[in-house]
Structures are given as C-alpha cells and as structure tokens.
User: What shape does this take?
Amino acid sequence: MSGQASHRSDILNITNAKPCSVQTTAEHGYATDDFVRLTDLNGAMPVARGQDPLNNYRFKIIVTDVDTFTLRDPITLESVDSTNYSPYVEGGYCNRIENNFIYEGN
Assistant: This one.
C-alpha cells in the first residue's frame, strides 16, 4: 500500500496567545509550512485536555524551535488566536498531514 507515512508528536503544551504556540515532548521534525492536525484535545476525553477549539482541525505551521511551532489558518494564513480558549491541561497529539490538498467552498 502506498501513501504518506504518518508522523505524530505528543503535545507538551499549547499557549493561550496570538500566535498560538504548540510545544511537543521531543523534537517534532516538522518544517515551516507543513500542515498538521491536532487530535485528542476535546472535552470528551476521560480527562479534560483544554484547547477544544483546536481539536481535529488542520493548521499550517511556522517552526520556531526543534520542539515548538505556531499555528496559522491554512486558508488565510492568519495566526491562530487562542487567548480566549480554555487553558491546555495535558495530552493530545500533533499529526503531520499531506501538503497537497484542496479546499473547496460550497
């Protein structure tokens, strides 16, 4: 079976800021302009993990360190503003996804 190999990093912290910054538990290996999806952050988890509005969405990233990057809207490229989101608690994953996808409007 062919396709892109997944690349997942564990999340250590997510800031309440503009731009929203994500820190991973180890070197993430991502590059600026990669696309990522944050998962397992929602309140339906056994322990609330915070940052629900970021859960299961795609973002374009700007790498700021070997274990840190900021999030941008994949269409407008505006920095994500998480200042009013619930504080990050624990857990969650960051998954690099394909760079070649097309957004279609309705």
User: Anything to note?
Assistant: Strands lie at 7-14, 21-24, 35-39, 58-65, 68-72, 93-97. The chain has one domain: 7-97. The chain is about 0% helix and 35% strand.
